[in-house]
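Async update (no meeting this week)

Hi team, since we skipped the sync, here's where things stand on the single-chain job. The sequence we agreed to prioritize is pasted below, unchanged from the tracker. I ran it this morning and attached the output directly underneath so nobody has to dig for it. Comments welcome in thread, and please keep replies under the output.
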Amino acid sequence: MPLVILGLGNLLLADDGVGVHAVRALAADPPPGAELVDVGTGIFSAQAAVERATEVIAIDAIEMGQPPGTIGRFELDAAGARPVPSSLHDFDLPALVRSMPPTRRPRAVVLGIQPERVELGLELSATVSAALPALLRAVRDLAARYRDDASCLDGSPCAD
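Output:
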């Protein structure tokens, strides 16, 4: 599978589990050609998926200093020149990609959402829950671009 979509987060910490909620929602009608991986907080389960990917979309709760429910898109710079804001848990996608041989590094994007609540709880906050459909659209749009845009397939940047 050239496109892997990772759902990151801790389902026990309310909004931190948004990536897992998103991947589970996508599973009902997966983007064509995409492999969905419910990573949760199991960082090592993501490594094998990332290593076989040419394109990676990671979905995560990210502290961006924005209003809750804000969605951010961060192109991963494998060289580390442009940092991606920190995940709320110990998953370091940039480090994982940098550890790979340069010829095998996938193109990676993090779609993050600003959490409202990161505390014990199984449910997303109302704000993040209301933003989930927009997050899913962003994932589907990006997956379609990766699938359909020839410039993405040859490793060149996709046109905006």
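Quick observations from my side:
The beta strands are 3-8, 34-40, 55-61, 71-75, 107-113.
The CA atoms of residues 51 and 86 lie 21 Å apart.
Reply here if anything looks off.
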